[in-house]
Amino acid sequence: MGNELYKIRDKGKYGFINKEGQVVIEPQYFEAEDFYNGFSRIRFNNKLVPLDSLGRLLMKHIFNYVGRFEEGLAKIQLVSQWGYIDQRGSIAIEVQYEDADDFSEGLAAIKMDGTCGFIDKEGHIVIEPKFEKAGSFRSGLAPVMIDGLYGYVDTKGQLKIKPQFEKAYQFQDHVAVIEADGKWGLIDASGKIIQTPQFDKEEGYTNGAFFHGMALTVKDDKYGFVNQKGEIVVESIYDFAGDFGARLAVVEINGAYGYIDKAGKLTILPKYEDAGVFSDGLAQVQVDGAWGFIDEKGNMVIEPKFQKVYPFKNGLALIEHGEFWAYIDTKGGLVWREKA
Hints:
By secondary structure, the protein is mainly beta. The protein has no helices and 37 strands.
C-alpha cells in the first residue's frame, strides 16, 4: 500500500500508526493482523472482519471466515460454502462453492460437486470443474490433479505439462516445485526436471520458495541454496541458514552466525549469537544477549541494547524492550513507544 501502517499495542488492545509515528487507528481491538494489500483483519464477535487503512470495518455482512484480499477480492465462507467480497465489503461472487482459492492472474480455483475448475472475477466459469485438485496461476500455468497425479494447465484449460508428479506447486517466475518420495525438486515451464527431487521437507521452512532468486535447501540436516536455474550454488554444508534478504543470507557455523552472498562467499564472519534476515539494508544480530542491527558490510549501525527485535519494514522496525513495544527508524531513533 502507498501509506504503510504499523500495528501498535496499548493496554492490551491493538491499533495502527503511520511511518511518522502518528496514531491513525486508535488501539481498540483485542486482535489485529498486519496490513496486507491495503487491509488488516480484526476479530469481532469471534469472526474475522476486514479493516481498511481509514479504520473502517467491512461489516455489510459477517462471515465464518474472510480471507486476505488478492487482486481486489477476498474469499469468504458462510456456513460451509464459499464466495468472494470486494473491497467495499459487498458480495462480488455469490456464496456457492464447496471450496475456493485466492485470485491470481485474474482467475481463482473453485470446487463444485467434488471437482475443481477456475472462475474469473465476474464469477464466470472459465475452466470447467474436472480436476481432483487445483492451485493458483503463476506465469500462465496452474497445477491440477488428474487421476492422482499433478500436471499444469494454461489459462484456457489446455494441459501444458502432463500429470506425472506426486505433488506440484505454483510457478515462481519460470520454475515450480514438485515432489517425489517426500523430497522436493524443480521443473521449468516446459515440465523438464531441472533439479531432481532430493531436498528434505522441513516443518516451518519455506521448502522451495524463492527469495531474491534463491531457495533454501536442506539435506541431511545441513543447509544450502539452489537458484532458479536449478543449480546448487551453495552446497548443504551449514548448520542453519535463513532466506536471502537481497544480497545476503544468514548462516550458522559451529554455533555462531554470519552471512554469505549468492556465490556462497562468507562476507560477514560468523561472530554473532543469533541473527536474522536483511531488510531495508539492515539485519538484526545478537551480541551478549542483546539485539541490534548491522548493515551489509557488517558495520554495527544500531547498537545491541534491545531484548527482542523484528526485521525492518519500509523504514521502521518493531522492538521489544522489557514489557513494552516500540518502533525505531533505520538510524535507531525512537518513532513510537507503548505507554507505561
